[in-house]
């Protein structure tokens, strides 16, 4: 009778006290069902236990994959439902997935190692900044040597790092624009090309800075440019001297025959050819024979009026009154070339402006326009002699000497010249001299 009492109490606990009458009426069938169900429940628990272990193992493997650990594997047991075909196929698929993920992880690790080796050893200085604070996330060897003499830069603020850096470097990095600028390094003037890009990494804004040394590249390109200009001059000389020689022979023959009525036209053609050749050679000689600057105090009204007579421009700010010293003739020549380039840049003529600014111990002339600006490739080569994207014509137009001559004049004065694209379109040329 004890087992009947136990079953009655169990049924009351499961079904509630309100069902006792029904249990008493149907107690024998219910007792029979409970007697049969309890062993089946225990047996089902034993049968399903391997499946539960398998599911827990699969859950652990998925969590390991989420954490980047692909080394976990699941082995099938010797008995039970793991021997069924469906579960065996699931285990095989899991093992293949783990192997594929491990192989991909190894390939990515090899690629990251190769990429990091290339980036670290490139001569291009590379900085990755986390915006908006400017914290340095990554810096390669060239960047560390340029900015911190090889020390680690990770976690430092770029603004604090540049406190003791040259002003030109600070201004260039703060501009947010691609540009060419000069900086004194180890007692020598070094030209750099700066490229800046904004990007998103893991949902966070970053800024990528690339600094490329241009002085050695410019020197190499200048040698190639001189070779190219020698070929150009030789070609132009041949094109002009051959007709002059032919016309001289024709004139001599006409004089021998006493046909003097045609001599005037022959001499006029020879004179025109000679003048064209003289203008062509004068443009190159002017660049090659730049004299040393003759320093003197500048008369600002006369100097600015002379520039305006050559090329119209809009003066930004008040007319300067602070005394300054430089070679007015050479500075006028350089600024006329810059204003001419600005007028030919494709923007409205009234947008061409000239500003005279003092920065610390430097006097800066800033020429701005609203033209099409320069591409990164053109910006990197714009200061090379004889490099031009314009068709030949005029004194300097198309000869590639305008910016190169301005650079020579700036360096002869101990100064520098920098180019940068303006936000909203156009170009800014900053011509700075020590005072």
How is this structure best described in words?
Keywords: ATP-binding, Kinase, Nucleotide-binding, Transferase, Two-component regulatory system. The protein contains 13 helices and 12 strands. The protein is an alpha+beta fold and 435 residues long. The chain has 4 domains: 115 residues, no CATH class; 92 residues, PAS domain (Beta-Lactamase); 71 residues; 139 residues, 2-Layer Sandwich (Heat Shock Protein 90). The strands form 2 sheets. It has a 10-stranded mixed beta sheet, with helices on both faces. It has a two-stranded antiparallel ribbon with strand order 6-8. The longest helix has 42 residues. It is elongated, with a radius of gyration of 42 Å. About 3% of the residues have low confidence.
Keywords:
phosphorelay response regulator activity; 435 residues; kinase; two-stranded antiparallel ribbon; ATP binding; two-component regulatory system; 18% strand; Beta-Lactamase; HisK_dim/P_sf
